Structures are given as C-alpha cells and as structure tokens.
Here is the input.
Amino acid sequence: MTVVDSRIQADPNAAGRPHAIVVGAGLGGLAAGMRLGAKGYRVTVIDRLDVVGGRGSSITSNGHRFDLGPTIVTVPQVYRDLWAACGRDFDKDVDLRPMDPFYEIRFPDGETFTARQSTEAMEAEVARLSPKDVPGYRRFLKDAARRYVVGFEGMVAKPMHKAWDTIKVLPTFGLLRADQSILKLAQKRVKDERLRMALSFHPLFIGGDPAHVTSMYALVSHLEKEYGVHYAMGGVQAMATAMANVIRDQGGRVRLGEEVDEILIKNGRAAGVRLSDGASEAAEIVVSNADAGFTYTRLLRNHKRKRWTDRKVRSRRWSMGLFVWYFGTSGTSDMWKDVGHHTILSGPRYEGLLNDIFIKNKLADDMSLYVHRPSVTDPSVAPEGGDTFYALSPVPHLGGKDPVDWTQMAETYRQKVQDVLEEKMLPGLWKHLSASAVFTPNEFRDRYLSPFGAGFSIEPRILQSAWFRPHNVSEEVPSLFLVGAGTHPGAGLPGVVSSAEVLSKLVPAVPPMHITEDMREAAE
Here is the structure.
C-alpha cells in the first residue's frame, strides 16, 4: 500500500528553492545537509536526539565529557574536501591534532606493539617481536597499497547503485584475492600470532569480523601510514557541531528533539516526512541517515517494497554489538603514565573470541578492549586533575537465538571490564572513579534505532558491500536517498562522510533560476 498524505503542503517560505529533508543528524546526515546546501537546496535536518552527531555525539557527567562513539579521525582530506565544497576551510572550524603514536596494542604475554606513521618505526616494532616476519610485513604493506588504490580511491566516493559498477571491478578483486579474509592475508604474510592480530583487527572498527571480511580491508594499514591518525579537539562532537553550523550558515535548519515517524509518498515519490507528533513537512527529496534497515522496515513500513522487505533486512549479517563503559576518574592525571590516548588490550584468544561474537552469538567470559583516554590530549574532557575514559568491548548483537539480557547482565559485565582494566593497565582504578555510564546493544537499539542493537549496521562482508549494500539512491522510492553506515561505502567516519559525497553525485544541482539573491550574497 502506498501512503498519500493530503496534509503535505508547500512551504510558503521556500523562496523558490527546492526543499531537502535529511532524517538524522549523524555525521552522514550532516555531511549530506552540507552537500545539498552547497548545491542550492533549502535543507532541513531532523533528529530525535537533543544534540547533533548521532553515534558521534557526546554526554557529560560530573564534569567529564564522553565521546559516545568514534574517536579516531583518519583521512582528513575527506573532511577538507567536504568543507571546500561548501566554500569553507575545515581547519578554521575544527582543531585536528595528529597522534603519534597512533595506538598501543598490549598482548596477554606482556609484550606490546606500538603503531606509528613511520614505516621504519613500524618495521622496528615487527623486528622486535619477530625478526623473521619483517619481509612478510613489507609484502603486507604492498598488499595494503594495492588494495587502497582499488578499494578506496576507486570505489569509496563513487556511486555503486548499478550492478555494472561492481561487476567491472571483479577481475581486479580476483587478482587481489578479495575472496580471502583480512586475517587469512595476515596469516600468509607473517607467522607471529601477535602480528597477525595487529595487522588484521582494523575491520572491528567498522563492525566486521576479520576472519570473514574481505582482505581489501588491508587498505586501512595504508590509510594510517599515508594520512596518519588524528583526534579532533572537543571530540567528534566538535566536528558534528561545526557541520551543523555550516548548514545553518547556508540558510538550512537543524531541528533537534523531533522524531520522524514515516517517509511520506505522493505520486509514487518521496514527498516529505510525518513526525511522531503527527505534523508533516513537504520536500522535493528526502535523505535518510537513519539506519538503512530501520529506514526500510519502519520509515517505509506502509510502502510496498520489492528488494528491501522486512524478511530481506532480517536475513542480512549484522555487525557485532558494543558494550561501552564510560568512566571518569579524579586525581589521576599524574597516574598510569604508560597509558596513552588509544590502547588496545588484546584478550587471551583472538580467532576464538571472533567466532563467539560473530558466529555463535555468544557472550564470552574473556574479552578484548579498546580503551580511549582523551584527557592526555584534550584537557577539556575532564575536571582538573582528572581523566576521562571509555572502554569498549565487542559483544554479540541482539539478533541471535538466545540474545544477552543486558538489563540483567550490564552491571556484571561492567564489573568484569573494570577487573580487566585494574589487572592489566589501571591499578587502583576503583578508588578514583568519579563518573560512570554504560551503553549496551540495548542503547544502540533504543537511542540510535539500530536493528538488533548492531554497532555498525550491516556487516561489511564482500557480498554485503558496494552494489550488494542498500543503495545511496533508493531502489524502492524515487526521490529518496540514503547516507550513513548502512549504505555504500559503509561504516567509519570516512565512510559515512563519503556517502554524502556519493549523494552529491546523484542529486542534481538546483537550477540557477532558483538561486536567490540572498544565496548569492552568502556564497560571496
């Protein structure tokens, strides 16, 4: 059944400019709003939260500001290009600081691996752990560079909604053995188990199982080496706020605390949205930054769908869930001096833990943790003398046969995380705790409307990538477009921001006759 809402009326303040509504103020939605504003659209971004940023937003507790989601900024040129498309200078709006080292991995045997931008420094780390693996590491870097050219430069910011766009790269994918997993590639190149983990874990940052996602993700190692790893002062929240400010400066609106309940269809095209309070707003195009699965199963629930039916959405392989403990400490700024900005605590099992999380959907007794300590770089995140942390543990999503009951398990698991931190890197932590909050897959389901509480939408396996992923231009409804983690090119900050660049190549610019004198003055 197709819904036609007679209450959709033309906006009397349109001033001749076509209206674009963006559902969701995550990084992908904000980037889409910026791109559409630059093309001459009158943009309205609507989000149910009280702050912009989506999964990249923040909360504050007892003087501690916690980045809720992404913390690592890579490929800064993606953001500089976005700002430049809007006639702005990214570096004037956002204070981006390079990290060196990038992060430290701590292994169960007490050894460490420190990742840096310098190839010489990285080879020295490899040689320290396993001298015989240096030649294999060099081969891995060549593998990563070749995959970067094909997978990042060749595909990330290009539309992939036509089958031919994917088919034509398959021969190259075959030559690069894209059918092999990133873990399998690492196993071919190095023998040391610790190095295999260090070279293959990166897909976990975008929700992928290293034992099953394509070896094309080796390109992340090249991205790190080529562009570095950065932190935005004020956190990713500061980036999101800067993006919203650009949209407002373009004459657009960012409306918070309002929930879109449905995308409305008129004459067979997306024509606006209905809010949860019953109000409607018309638009020439609608862009959904909501999860692709949620967009189709909820926002288009009254529209007959040919490809992305409820059954098809449920049958996808979804990324893992996340358990994140946000905690603050007092009187610790001079403690734990060996703990830097980014630390990865590798658990006693690697492949076994991946299998539990992604295949068995089982909450394991052991864990690996990513620990974020931004206060060593950005004093504004904590009260004087204190620290702000978060510890993230990959866990199963809620779509398994016997999902974890996080209402009962959250505090038990949080205590396990605390125990690991006390034993491995933050002795005496319990004495200094001054703030605490926990997000489980339940929060990802309820706060971000993510199907099954998945942390990164659809898992980026090879047959769930490019054309196989929900398209940026909807297959179901004309004038509807998708951005964000659940569409092409996928999750991660560069991915969701690049999805808006893909969008800009699909949506026509506003004809000059619709550009008002006010817009010309703003552009000048």
Summary: Confidence is low (pLDDT under 50) at residues 1-14, 514-524. The two ends are 47 Å apart (CA to CA). Residues 134-153 form the longest helix (20 residues).
